[in-house]
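User: Let's play a game. I give you a shape written as tokens, and you guess the letters that built it. Ready? Here's round one.
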């Protein structure tokens, strides 16, 4: 089958590798000419993976949107949330056939707090949407592209479509489960980005395993409280898009959110990091959205409140940790 991957970054390239290993012909759409040439000429994406990672020869790349759109009826969307809306608007102006949209980003729309599946529904003409599936869960591109064992979920309101995506991607090193709790899954994988920043902060401040275990556990409790308010199913958060993604993102050096928190913790301040950072750190904006939505609906999220105050009010992380520890005692 022909499959188009929109986005020539780490995750788009890694997923292209999985699909090509499964015998599919893959076309990556990217806007960076050097990356596209590298993929086509050298079978590498050395900008992200260096010269050691060799890509499957069934992967090609293009900078021409029309070519990418015409190539297939399965579109894998692997761009940051900051580019999500603009890409969909471009696709919508040119698309004239039904396709399956597979979203792989974890976060919220840049214009509002909308989940990304709802953004697709809003921006793409209904007659051109065969199905919407989110391919999300505990996964780092740096491991997937070199074929290390990974499990993930295909989440969709349309179980038949989720199963189709499951079959497209599953192989000996990449196992895909299905589920239909779109709300819970998408909120869970977005929420964990904010908690991962807090995990990095703890590490940067010199706290140990006990503190990180406490953060992950109480962060999960907040995630469940917030997401079930909007209709997520509680059992979802014991799975890959809840606890699984939370665990890996809070503990991995591959996580940009953890790395951001680590720098903030070492400095005991977010100001310098925010001034100099040029990488996409989804948890920064996610924190603001969750903070504002939680306040609007009176949902208790003390960890998010603390991260928000560090990121947006320039308060000292060590002071806020002390305040969290001194909160009124209560039952778990």
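Assistant: Ready! My guess for every position:
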């Amino acid at each position: 089958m022909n499959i188009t991957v929109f986005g020539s970054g780490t995750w788009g390239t890694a997923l292209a590798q999985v699909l090509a290993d499964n015998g599919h012909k893959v076309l990556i759409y990217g806007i960076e000419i050097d990356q596209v040439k590298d993929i086509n000429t050298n079978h590498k994406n050395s900008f992200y993976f260096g010269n050691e990672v060799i890509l499957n020869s069934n992967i090609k790349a293009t900078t021409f949107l029309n070519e990418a759109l015409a190539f297939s009826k399965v579109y894998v969307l692997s761009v940051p949330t900051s580019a999500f809306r603009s890409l969909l608007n471009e696709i919508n102006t040119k698309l004239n056939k039904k396709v399956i949209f597979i979203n792989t980003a974890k976060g919220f729309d840049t214009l509002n707090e909308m989940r990304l599946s709802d953004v697709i529904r809003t921006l793409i003409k209904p007659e051109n949407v065969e199905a919407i599936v989110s391919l999300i869960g505990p996964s780092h591109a740096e491991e997937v592209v070199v074929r290390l064992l990974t499990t993930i979920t295909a989440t969709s309101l349309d179980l038949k479509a989720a199963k189709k995506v499951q079959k497209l991607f599953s192989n000996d090193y990449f196992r895909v489960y299905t589920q239909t709790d779109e709300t819970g899954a998408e909120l869970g994988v977005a929420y964990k980005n904010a908690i991962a920043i807090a995990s990095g902060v703890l590490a940067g401040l010199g706290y140990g395993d006990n503190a990180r275990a406490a953060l992950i556990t109480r962060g999960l409790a907040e995630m469940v409280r917030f997401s079930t308010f909007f209709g997520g199913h509680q059992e979802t958060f014991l799975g890959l898009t809840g606890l699984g993604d939370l665990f890996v993102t809070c503990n991995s050096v591959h996580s940009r959110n953890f790395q951001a928190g680590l720098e903030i913790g070492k400095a005991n301040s977010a100001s310098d990091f925010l001034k100099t950072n040029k990488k996409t750190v989804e948890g920064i904006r996610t924190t603001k959205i969750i903070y504002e939505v939680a306040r609007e609906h009176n949902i208790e999220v003390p960890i998010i409140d603390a991260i928000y105050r560090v990121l947006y009010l320039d308060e000292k992380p060590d002071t806020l940790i002390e305040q969290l520890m001194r909160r009124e005692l209560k039952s778990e």
